[in-house]
Design goal:
mainly beta; 9% helix; 5-stranded mixed beta barrel; 125 residues; 1 helix
């Protein structure tokens, strides 16, 4: 019995994706007919197909509401998608740096998400 559904990508490594429906997780690979221009990232909702042996294959992913990305050697790398809240965590110790927080705020200031600063180790300063 073949089954198709949509699952959330919760972890990615070189060749496998860990997907979840909120209760159970499964390990998935890209379907051999996958034709997307980019690969799914953490946060993506992916369309999957389970074959008769209950192996999970990603066929495509749904539209992203936003992405967290960086530029590496002139190439845009998407690190995560569909983000609701971005937490910027920084220690208030001797390495505390407002300029660094501003840079992280710019990176974390993505469409349709909220930005939250978490400052730690106040008792040590």
């Amino acid at each position: 019995m073949n089954k198709e559904c949509v699952l959330k990508c919760i972890s990615v490594n070189r060749t496998n994706w860990v997907l979840s429906d909120g209760n159970k997780t499964c390990l998935a690979r890209l379907d051999k007919f996958y034709s997307g221009e980019s690969f799914p990232v953490v946060g993506d909702n992916v369309n999957v197909f389970f074959n008769d042996w209950n192996e999970c294959f990603i066929t495509s992913f749904c539209n992203r509401k936003n992405v967290l990305s960086r530029i590496d050697n002139g190439v845009k790398q998407i690190m995560a998608s569909n983000i609701d809240i971005v937490f910027v965590v920084s220690s208030m110790n001797n390495d505390f740096n407002i300029a660094k927080l501003e840079r992280l705020a710019i990176i974390g200031n993505i469409k349709s998400s909220k930005l939250c600063f978490v400052l730690t180790k106040k008792d040590l300063c």
